Amino acid sequence: MKAINKEIIMEAARAFLLEGRILNARPYGGGHINDTFAVECEREGGSIKRYILQRINTNVFRNPIQLMENIVGVTNYLGKLIEKQGGDPMRETLTVIPTREDKNWYVDSQGGYWRTYHFIEDTVTYDKVESKEDFYNSARAFGRFQQLLSDYPAETLYETIPNFHNTVDRFAKFREALNRDICGRAKNVSREIAFALEREKDTHKLIDLLKSGKLPLRVTHNDTKLNNVLIDKETGEGICVIDLDTVMPGLSLYDYGDSIRFGATYAAEDEQDLSKVNFELELFEAYTKGWLEVAGDVLTPYEIENLPMGAKLMTLECGIRFLTDYLSGDTYFKVHREEHNLDRCRTQFKLVSDMEACWGEMKAIVSKYTDK
Ligand code: ADP
Ligand code: GN1
Ligand code: MG
């Protein structure tokens, strides 16, 4: 990906059909993948209208046009359904803004791919969990997302990143990075490497159940961390699920599990003081309750039984991905300091250990909300 500068951001902003005169475009949000900007425009009469402008990370998403086709398909579908249910599609789902040439993406003069969304105002996102209530509210939003898309024709979706949550494949990629050790970093992280290697068997668990047909393939979001839900500033409700780049066929347990791995702790994903990183059963319970209240009815007994495994495997997978990127020289996730990926890996592995230590309690909480 080419370095980004003001000229190229403005070139991209001008390509889209924005209302009013562009005042500025500033970096926005804390995502690890795309380059995100908030664009402010001044409309006639002086009112301000904002947009989210993003350069799609094409190292990660190799086919940005297919990706945009997925997003337009899903957001149009959600918009219609939300309207039918009496909701507000402009707040409850993303709205893609076309270019002046009526396309859903723009290719800049350096070959970068851009897209623009309507900015959903009066909302916040959290980069870590501050309260049980916010986490519960995000669970209801992700549950609703899953439920609204339950009849979406999965076969029309492109797989934007093949094997995204295939934990067996993730483990193989980790082993490859370890064998290559191109930065000579493996010697610094023998404990983390051992932690991952000891759990290789676990990486087969959900994939085997999928292969044998015991777990159903659904349309899933696949990146359900807390800062991918816009929370209404006034009501605290989770109103809109964003970051739809990875919407594709997957397991419901991926969505449930990825939320738990990020949010069932009061610590940030990159907290360096591991004494602060604890898996909190009260947060696990809040999310489980909220998610099952909205999406529970469509789940099969195998899905329910494997909710704790979904949580553990998504956490293990993410830790392995951070470790793989650390070993490979930080080429995938954005990093802001030397050992950023390693710090992230350590928080994930600490959470995995905590989950293993309270497996019985996790199962009991799931039963509390599913045994009828
Ligand atoms: P990444 O893939 O890099 O995580 P996201 O699509 O999640 O990028 O966007 C990054 C951040 O920008 C989000 O966490 C959120 O705070 C903000 N954001 C994204 N889309 C919107 C939107 N339509 N309205 C308001 N804020 C948004
Ligand atoms: C990335 O795009 P963002 O920041 O929401 C990543 C997720 C990881 C997450 C870890 C496409 O999510 O898979 O779980 O970082 N997205 C992609 O924080 O790889
Ligand atoms: Mg995001």
Structure description:
The protein is α+β, with helices and mostly antiparallel strands and 372 residues long. It has two domains: 6-118, 2-Layer Sandwich (Phosphorylase Kinase, domain 1), CATH 3.30.200; 132-368, Aminoglycoside phosphotransferase (APH), C-terminal lobe (Aminoglycoside 3'-phosphotransferase, Chain: A, domain 2, Alpha-Beta Complex). The chain has helices at 6-15, 64-84, 89-92, 132-148, 167-180, 190-197, 205-211, 252-263, 281-295, 301-305, 307-327, 340-357, 359-370; strands spanning 21-27, 35-42, 48-55, 96-97, 106-107, 113-118, 123-124, 218-220, 229-232, 238-241, 248-250. A hairpin with a 5-residue loop joins strand 5 (106-107) and strand 6 (113-118). Helix 4 (132-148) runs parallel beside helix 9 and helix 9 (281-295) packs parallel to helix 13. Adenosine-5'-diphosphate binds next to loops.
Ligands bound, unique: adenosine-5'-diphosphate, 2-acetamido-2-deoxy-1-O-phosphono-alpha-D-glucopyranose, magnesium ion
Share of helical residues: 40-55%
Strand content bin: 5-15%
The named CATH superfamily of the largest domain: Aminoglycoside phosphotransferase (APH), C-terminal lobe
> Helical stretch count?
13
Q: Gap between N and C termini, in Å?
A: 52 Å
CATH architecture descriptor name of the largest domain: Alpha-Beta Complex
Give the count of structural domains. Answer: 2
Instruction: Give the low-pLDDT segments.
Output: none
What is CATH's topology name of the largest domain?
A: Aminoglycoside 3'-phosphotransferase, Chain: A, domain 2
Note the main sheet. 6 strands, antiparallel
How many strand segments? 11
What general outline do the C-alpha atoms trace?
Answer: globular
Query: Tell me, what is the CATH class of the largest domain?
Result: Alpha Beta
Mean pLDDT: 97
